[in-house]
Amino acid sequence: MKPSFPRLLAPEILDELREDDPRAIRSRQDLGRINYVMGAAGILARALTADAVAPKRIIEFGAGDGSLMLRLAKQLAPRWPGVHIVLLDRQHCITQHTRDAFARAGWTLQVRQADVADWASGAAGDQFDQFDQFDIALANLFIHHFNDDQIIRLFNAISVRTDRFVACEPRRAQLPLFASRLVGLLGANAVTRSDAVASVKAGFHGTELSSLWPANPSWRLTEGRAGLFSHVFTASRCRS
Description:
By secondary structure, the protein is α/β, with parallel strands linked by helices.
């Protein structure tokens, strides 16, 4: 079934705020609560562990304050010990408390401040080797910020630098759109209330992300609804 409204991409306020702006700090806290309500950690954990092979290196795009990845680390560390995680974001929002929590979970952490487009093109300076490889790349509420051409370029880069990609995005449908207009009930500020609606309108449905992944038989793609509000896309390299 097709969504009842077309995809609409619009700027989100949080993306334009400095990381130390009080409105941005509050909005990132709001996102933590929204991720909890959406069950993002559980959705991602199930998608990640569908492949039984334990990874050594993971990169998260648009990692924000790292809180979601930290929840995943705490869940997955018993079966995935000693993972090296790279958190990539245009802003530097990772606190020492978060760094220490990753260390207690037994995962090593690198924080890289760069635009994902620079990562994809190899223009991120000395922060990355252009051919640096990861077992898993993941993104949560991030891919919907980009238009189709930008997603294609990002997917092309991911497909040559990782063996598995998982994205959890807003589901573009009437129920998530209705719910996005109620995030104020969670105590969300004006930034989050505006961005939540914009996120759903820019979200995904059906096999829209699969259609943007490089056409290659060596990849297995899955895509669809997860829970009430989320849309999940996974790409896994087939093993010979």
